[in-house]
Amino acid sequence: MRGASPENSAASAASGSPEAGLETFCGDSLVPDKPLMPIATAVWLIDNTSLTFEQIADFCKLHPLHVKGIADGDVGGGVRGIDPVTNHQLTREEIEKAEADSNHLMKIERPRTLVAERTRKGPRYTPVSKRQNRPDAIAWIVRNHPEISDAQIAKLLGTTKSTIQSVRDRSHWNAANITPQDPVGLGLCTQTELDMLVRKAAAKKERLAPAPADEGARLQPAAETIAPAPEPEEEGDHRRRGAVDVEKVFARLGGSSRSRKEDDDEG
Mind listing the pLDDT tens digit for each residue in 82-102? Predict the structure, then answer.
């Protein structure tokens, strides 16, 4: 099957056919353009069909001379043929159509369902050329994100807990040359993976943090709650305090009543 060009994919997607939509969704990276074992498939097609060398060569992505050499026994003498129909790479109807028309080129069968690649558990694989940078990345994470556990760091960078601990306590054999560097810049992980790990570690730390104690109503000091009792007053003091001296009151207002009376008599 020849890879579809962007123009053809866009035109077929606009037509609304299911195969066109699947082709646009799958792309050339998910749908193979040739059988898994092209030589073994060519052997089976030569022995069990009347297809031409050109048709078999186009389907298996081989040279016609290569297919001719297989038919003559010069190439692939010990290869056992594999049926592409049972492997769901070709349909019987497609073979019959190609046998009836020598100009018809067969197309590989598209998968009916697309299964997402299963995520790999455990530490990630780090290329040999970047393994020497892992202590620098560990030191950077330990310094800037102490909430991330050693198990999370080991899974993110593909290292071991012993290496992380040696970087923490400066007992690493190359501790003098370790310089904290961003693991994203070193190519050991992506920014999305690092941000996701930081958010996950922060949420876990917040969840495990002890809840603040409920203080509630606290007892106040006795000096604030108990007011001093008033001293009892004697009956004589109460009477004296209740009696009003009229002369003093008028004297404060500018003169006594007696002086006013004397002034009236003189007048």
Answer: 888 888 888 899 999 999 998
